[in-house]
Design goal:
Layout (H helix, E strand, L loop, with lengths): L1 H15 L13 H4 L6 E4 L9 E11 L7 E7 L1 E6 L2 E6 L8 E7 L7 E11 L14 E6 L14 E4 L3 E4 L3 H5 L8 E5 L18 E2 L1 E5 L1 E2 L9 E4 L6 E5 L3 E6 L16 E3 L4 E22 L4 E7 L24 E5 L6 E3 L5 E11 L5 E12 L7 E4 L3 H15 L17 H14 L4 H12 L20 H17 L3 H5 L2 H12 L38 H20 L3 H22 E2 L4 E2 L10 H10 L4 H13 L8 H13 L11 H8 L23 H9 L2 E3 L6 E4 L8 E8 L2 E10 L3 E8 L4 E6 L2 E5 L2 E7 L4
Parallel strand pairs: 6-15, 11-21, 14-15, 29-33
Antiparallel strand pairs: 1-13, 2-7, 2-9, 3-6, 3-8, 4-5, 4-7, 9-12, 10-11, 16-24, 17-19, 18-24, 19-22, 19-23, 19-24, 20-21, 20-23, 25-30, 26-27, 28-29, 30-31, 31-32, 32-35, 33-34
Amino acid sequence: MVRFLCSLWLFMIIFLSSQAQDQWVDKEKSLWHNNRWQGKWISCPNVPQRDYGVFHFRKDFVLPDKPKTYKIHVSADNRYRLFVNGKAVVSGPARGDLHHWYFETVDIASYLQPGKNVVAALVWNMGVYAPIAQISAQTGFVIQGESAHEMAVNTDNSYKVFQSKAYTPCSTDNMERLNAYMVIGPGDDVDASRYIWGWQELDFDDTAWSQAQVVADAVPQGVGTDNIWTLEPRNIPLLEEKPQRLSEIRWVTGMDRKAFSGFLTGATSVTVPANSRVSLLIDQSVNTVAYPELSTSGGKGSSVKLSYAEALFDQNLRKGNRNEVEGKKLIGNYDVFRPDGHAHRLFRPLWLRTYRFIQMDVETGDEPLTLHDFLGYYTTYPFEMNAQFKSNDKRMDDIWDVSWRTARLCAGETYFDCPYYEQLQYSGDTRIQALISLYISGDDRLMRRSLLDFHYSRVPEGMIQGRYPSSRLQIIPTYSLWWISMIHDYWMHRQDDLFIQQFLQGIAGALDWYGQHLDQENGMLGPIPWWPFVDYTPQFSSGLPKGATEGNSSILTLHYAYTLKQAADLFAYFGEPEQAARYRKEADRLNKVTYQHCFDRARGVMADTPEKQVYSQHASILAVLSGSIPEAERYAVIKNVLEDESLIPVTFYFRFYLTRALLESSLGDRYYDKLDAWRKMLDLGLTTFSETPEPTRSDCHAWSASPSYDFLATICGIRPSSPGFKSVLIDPNLGALKEVEASMPHPAGEISVKFKRKGRHGISGTVTLPENLQGNFQWNGKQQILLGGKNTIEMLDGL
């Protein structure tokens, strides 16, 4: 009865709360939610609707005067780039799934004029070449004006459409050439002689174009019974896009390098003679994500191949020091542009490219080709750095900067695991990324979006998909548990109950799935199907520890117990005490039985299975985090984990959890010493942090950006001590550092700290909190109450 009443109470809160109370939903959603749009989904007639294709749409319309506002909603499948009177306005849509297909809302009034106007869109469908992150139904494009006078641009069969014959997919063999999993979609081979130049301009003659075909009604969420795309407003901001100049030309063949002086700055043009082959290697100096743009004139019959790479390879296909180019070659995805001989042609790929290095290979025919300019347009989610960290170790500045660059390049319309190879959102990676976002920027919108994405991805068995959005099903059972941890993280950092409570059913479903896979004989988890990935350490085959697929893995069992405790916190908070008690009881049972079967007292660590033949750092880390190791033993166990070199080591990904275990074992001061792996990456010339230790596939991988979070949460010790970050614990772990100074955003303002070592064990400094925030300062077993405003810290040796 108590559970029923609590559930009823929650339901009434949701029912009685207006949509304005939910900050996630656009306040204008009610304007369209209950009405079928008048704008229709349109496409190109007489083409295979699910095949590769690039299309131009446009419509002329007349306005009596320049409007003050002119809001429209726009979307497409797969993607679009919208122009108004020849000016690029917006790109999208933010990737989702067919049940949650996003549209952008944009005010185009500043682009309009009295009299004739034109709205035009480049729409493309990558078909079988589409990135795995791209879900699709068929080619489609839709615009809906917000009000009656704005509906002149609604899509219907009054639009004209032309299928471009200029585009051909290329670089479709990346996986074979790079011998790596690479699923970001194709490159673009663009023939300028077949391109319809000026198609987006106001004075373009489209009389020869076809009439667009209506393919479906535009259906908002909750409306309709025969939908293709179910529309929702975009729930994240538009991506940042700004010019980014390339840094340096490292070598040139086929021409004098001096001819390219000033080219990368846009100051001078370069003319490549007829019947020539010229190559140049361009170094951005740091890894980046951008839309490259190349401007040319002349050169009919020529080709320009642009190849992109994070790093170069030597003869043994090893990367080595990333700054070195001598004796190395570029292997990577590429685009091709084929000029038509006319002046000032502009090439820009349909989708963003990731690169530090670009190799430009120019081959001319009977005409010389002039290269006017070449630059990138940097594009990522618009996170801002609202935190800072400084210390007496200046090398930490480099780790801080490179960590943040890594995190930024791994955030677009979703979080990316890596921008070069996959651009897929995995919950294991995303948990770490989301904490970085909260601490460095304070922006929680992409975290909220990712929690919803995984919520939408659930399969009938109760698990979430390991990555989502994704056109291919992939179940990573451990990632369902990390999703629950993400929800717990969000609950601890943000007061947002109505948003969080919607996930309780999904949490219960995933945990019930695990409960069905227990080994009844010894009480641990039995064989786990699908891909129970843990870490990419070489001793784990495909990331799987001993016992994962055979059964009785201490790592998987303890991970389950760890998550049960987090779920218990959530269910207790949301009025489900019986469910919470059941989860805690099961977690305690799993911890106890795993400790009995797998803890090796002689070695002082947890074995990976009851046979005690394989030992990894992972098992003891999760034993500490789950509470399987008694509190009095944790210090000794984690000390053994750090010092026993025979244990299978964690990689960059799972070092995040090693750090959590250090904090749980009063060994947080050891974190600073464990940054050598990041220092080594800097020594190798990496400008973003890699997926794994050398040899590595990806040079930019989000889970390796964890120092951005841990410099604040571990070294400075700033962590929430109650849900919603309503109180704070400041528990610094300086290690060998003598001085640190940092600040970070908090929902109520800014938290700033400044600490200095005093003697061997003392500390002094200040902690400044938002006025309404309170907490505790903790140092070597001593505590001090913290109040809003500036607090002075003075804890000296022996006091």
